Amino acid sequence: MSEQPRQEHPRPQFVRDSWVNLNGEWEFAFDDGNAGDEERWQLGDKPLPLRIQVPFAFQSKLSGIADPDIHDTVWYRRSFDVPAEFANKRILLHFGAVDYEASVWVNGQLAARHEGGHTPFKADITRLLNKNGNVLVVKAVDCSRDRTLPRGKQYWKPKSAGVYYTRTTGIWQTVWMEAVSSVHLDRVKLTPNLDAKQVEIQAFVQGELEGRDLRLHASISFGGKSVAEDSYSVRHEQEKRIVTLRDGNERAPGLEGLWSPDTPNLYDIAFRLYDGQELLDEVKSYFGMRKISVENGRFYLNNRPCFSKMVLDQGYFPDGNLTPPSDEAIRRDVELTKEMGFNGARKHQKLEDPRYLYWCDRLGLLVWSEAANAMEFSDANVRRFANEWIESVERDYNHPCVAVWVPLNESWGASDIRCDGRQEAHAMSLYYLTKSLDSSRPVVSNDGWELVKTDLFTIHDYGWNEELLTERYRSAAKAVSALPAGMNLYVDGYPYEGQPILVTEMGGIAYRTSEQEGWGYSGASDDADYESRLRAVIRPYHAADTVVQGYCFTQLTDVEQEINGLLTYDRKPKIQLEIIRSINEGN
């Protein structure tokens, strides 16, 4: 790969101009014998034998290695210089995601440790830097066979099969540096209040505040036109303000535009942190004025009923595996989803790259954000999962596209939830934990079946007979008493209480367009048969739209051996996109 991969800003909702992308060629080594610690590879004084293209995991083709075998411990090494314009600043080193445990050294000194394969972390490396030339070393440990690790669709056996795919080990999202002042914004939390025409701004400030005259200025614009300004003193590490938006030239509260899949209007917001007259920090962000709510058994977007037409998206790519090959590839997935008539995506068992959420914000696509689950319950998994889930919700809170939080899927990591009080408590605790972090979005505690406390009543149903599906969803009573896949839809003590009903997995029609063998839930023989089957599994939900308030078709693309996609693995439509769109529109 000649040019640096993934050059776009990796954190599009919190952008500073002073940043450096560290993607590209790094030195690399497998450490199956765990020699690295004994030989002190962390010192960085010896080169590693292989070369890898970061941010692609070694299992992927784009890494330049493409080794599918199990290697649970890997090392990375590269040299770097700090730009002259970063002088007299604090230098923050960021990792978008490293699967699963990461240890980071700069010039032989420990800079950071992090556990969690899908969430970002950072370290202030200022005190570790040399004036001339620096060495960065990363050790990643990912226990491939440990079924208590949050792994999502990464298979614990040597070769992928069924609905499980190739593993991802080590760095798989962008690595980058940025320069900040000793006092700077750490993050912001933006909460729109559609009804009041306001946005709540919670700013988190890092550094020594005492003895300074700190002020934070927020400028909000829409289409280049100012709609609000706010400036206030900063006396605490967390400061909260409520800002009222103006409509056009009027001084009265008002909105220029709402965010929805049809009208993805975004407001730009710029933050400037001052100490007296000195500008310490400047950050650019954006937000959408939209409201997700559940009222009287209905799912609402912006105070209007919203029928969800979603596609299940695994987020895998043929050359990059979990890592999208380019920003354009991410954008194209969102565009293809919309071209087929879907208004949402359920990102399945993967906390997606922030750039995906950025394009959903920009182009208009609702997202159900779902955690990567473990396969088995354990004390360690409770701790690991809770920590990573907190980081996930905090990372993506500001994205207007994120509509629903889904910590668990089909009792993965809690397979005895109906008879084990601890596993039931685990699912319940995740529901309330999520609510404590974000009270503005619905939470589905355990998507698909064996539900406990939940805001939406979600069902996984791969039935393919149109008459059977039509009858099953003729009434709410019939829908919630069915046993699709032979599974109880709720745990005893948590009966249906009038929540909106959505069928959040359905379809799964295998259609092989090449000679390659594949796996799927049900099979189509040719284009006409495929179209007929699509209509048969989607039409009943449009007919039952007073009972069922949405569906999620499995799935966007084929992935490795699984051929349930509307598109092939390389994103080629199996039938015309216009036909799929027409079916999704209820025609």
Features:
587 residues, Jelly Rolls, Immunoglobulin-like, TIM Barrel, 3 domains, seven-stranded parallel sheet, six-stranded antiparallel sheet, GH2_Domain-Containing, hydrolase, GH
Write a structural description.
This protein is α+β, with helices and mostly antiparallel strands and 587 residues long. 17% of the residues lie in helices and 30% in strands. It folds into three domains: 19-174, Jelly Rolls (Sandwich), CATH 2.60.120; 184-287, Sandwich (Immunoglobulin-like); 292-584, Glycosidases (TIM Barrel, Alpha-Beta Barrel). The radius of gyration is 24 Å and the shape is globular.
Short description:
Keywords: Glycosidase, Hydrolase. The protein has 587 residues and is an alpha+beta fold.
Please tell me the overall pLDDT. Answer: 96
The largest sheet has its strands arranged as 26-25-24-23-31-28-27
CATH architecture annotation name of the largest domain:
Alpha-Beta Barrel
Q: Could you tell me the number of beta strands?
A: 31
CATH topology of the largest domain: TIM Barrel
For the record, the count of structural domains works out to 3
Q: What is the level 1 CATH name of the largest domain? A: Alpha Beta
Radius of gyration over alpha carbons? 24 Å
Through-space gap between termini:
45 Å
Which structural category fits the helices and strands?
Answer: alpha+beta
Domain Glycoside hydrolase family 2 immunoglobulin-like beta-sandwich: 183-290
Domain Glycoside hydrolase family 2 catalytic: 326-450
Organism: Cohnella fermenti
GO molecular function: hydrolase activity, hydrolyzing O-glycosyl compounds
